[in-house]
Amino acid sequence: MAPMTSQDALDRVLVIIPTYNEAQNIESITTRLRRAVPHAHILVADDNSPDGTGAIADRLAADDDHIHVMHRKGKEGLGAAYLAGFHWGLDNGYGVLVSHDADGSHQPEELPRLLAAIDAGADMVKGSRWVKGGSVVNWPKTRELISKGGSLWTRLWLGIPVKDATGGFNAYRAGTLRGISLDEVASAGYCFQIDLVWRALKNGFRVVEVPIEFVEREFGDSKMSRNIVVEALIRTTLWGVEHRIGQVLRAVRRLAGRRAA
Ligand SMILES: Nc1nc2c(ncn2[C@@H]2O[C@H](COP(=O)(O)OP(=O)(O)OP(=O)(O)O)[C@@H](O)[C@H]2O)c(=O)[nH]1
Ligand SMILES: [Mg+2]
């Protein structure tokens, strides 16, 4: 098979929407996405939502060949839903895969700007609240502090130049996802987003942040919990300790090598 050109990749876009109890949001978000980027396909990855989100998605898919639904057996966290969605997208030949929340926080009308950054050469694009031009609407101060604090903590430990490490509105070239050992990803909550950008950077992929306006959800409940924050804190700190020990060991080895020479 001939390799996919950049234009081929951008012609084959899949937007993955993980859902758990998003019955009030799913139709409006898919409608907005279909309007904003008409050639993109959508995969709803639903964890058997008790509120019937999966059945609504089925109805939408029945009327539109650009909408697909993956029914998963139960709530396993957004990380697991994204991994299943990425595998489905890669197996079905999509060139660019996008992660997108159902709750209206990520605005479909901003997706063309993320895709433009892929077109300009990025391997991974992060929609970012905390770069110049980015913003949040209707977010309580506590959420802003958790998000900014989490990104700062990540930057300090991992030494990565990413302002919004936990952001979930991202676009990946298929080759990026193939090159970051997805099978080893164990993060379940929003730490998943940090895990993926850290892997992309470690593997030498070009990561670009583009400013987005993030809007607090109007309908339905947030699945953010203390466990999700604690998971992110523990995992990033462990990766950071491993990273910093690696740096020290490499420096010691270099020094020892210089002495011996
Ligand atoms: N399939 C699946 N989707 C999930 C799960 N948890 C959350 N989601 C979806 O992932 C997206 C983000 O979840 P939110 O609850 O909005 O979490 P958040 O965006 O981190 O938190 P808020 O900013 O408070 O909304 C939404 O589309 C959810 O429906 C899950 O366990 N399984
Ligand atoms: Mg949300």
What does this structure look like?
This protein has 261 residues and is of the alpha/beta class. It has one domain: Spore Coat Polysaccharide Biosynthesis Protein SpsA, Chain A (Alpha-Beta Complex). It contains 9 helices and 9 strands. The strands form 2 sheets. A 7-stranded mixed sheet has the order 3-2-1-4-7-5-8, with helices on both faces. α6 packs parallel to α9 (226-260) and α8 packs parallel to α9 (226-260). The radius of gyration is 19 Å and the shape is globular. The structure holds guanosine-5'-triphosphate and magnesium ion (MG). Guanosine-5'-triphosphate (GTP) is lined by residues 18-20, 22, 45-47, 75-78, 81, 101-103, 105, 190, 217, 222-224.
CATH superfamily: Spore Coat Polysaccharide Biosynthesis Protein SpsA, Chain A
Pattern of helices and strands: HEHEHEHEHEEHEHHEEH
What assembly state would you assign to the polypeptide chains in this entry?
Answer: single chain
> What separation lies between the terminal Cα atoms?
50 Å
Strand content: 15-25%
The pLDDT mean sits at: 94
Strand arrangement, largest sheet?
A: 3-2-1-4-7-5-8
Supply the number of structural domains.
1
State the share of residues found in helices, binned by percent: 40-55%
